[in-house]
Amino acid sequence: MQTFITESAEETRGFGKKLAAKLQEGTVIALTGQLGAGKTTLIQGIAQGLGIKDPVTSPTFILINEYPSNPPLIHLDLYRLDSETQIEDLGIEDYFEKPAIMVIEWAEKLGTLLPSNAIKIELEVLGDNKRRIAIC
What we know:
The protein is α/β, with parallel strands linked by helices. It has helices spanning 9-20, 39-49, 84-89, 92-96, and strands at 2-6, 28-32, 64-67, 73-77, 101-105, 119-125, 131-135. Helix 1 crosses helix 2 (39-49).
């Protein structure tokens, strides 16, 4: 496990931007952490690193946002879903097959649907703006 500490939202975005440079088509990133832990902020940095200029917000109500880049970014938020069945009904396995980078908020809800090769990242609030980012 690698652990990083960020002291601000901008540093968390910067971490995401650096991470984006290492990502390839087909990568799945599973994010976990309480509300306000910085999951969306990290994804904003990944999007910046991929050259995405559009504003990146959490798709809590629409569940999935796709952003054009090379490779494309798929942002999935499972906060409102309660079961693997609801997640399966999204056709999530089809998304895993797309030539894209997929980042999933509340990934713990995937259960057995989470691909075994997913990069797992846990975010934790340590203070007002301080976050611990652990890559498992």
